[in-house]
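Reviewers of the previous submission asked for a worked example of the structure-prediction workflow described in the proposal, so we include one complete record here. The input consisted solely of the amino acid sequence. No template or homolog information was supplied to the procedure at any stage.
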Amino acid sequence: MSNRAVSVKSVERVERDVMPLVKLMTFAAWALLAIGLVLSLVSLESFSDTNTTLMVGIGFMVGSVHIYVIRTAIHLVHSRNIAKGE
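From that input alone, the workflow returned the following structure tokens.
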């Protein structure tokens, strides 16, 4: 029996550029926050759960926070992967 030497090529990882996504999500979060603030301030006179415009405005503001948190998580994971690679 003979032994064969097998060489394994190093696998190159293709890094994705997430900065355009991070910038888009930042812009979207701020835009939704502004829309939510405008909707909430326009219909603030009747502060109740039956005020649809106010509830939609609050929903936009909550959604903007969620988008910003997801954007931050993506940015941090990408930054950690770059730091690990160096």
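DSSP finds two helices and no strands in the chain. We consider this example representative of the routine output the project will generate in years two and three.
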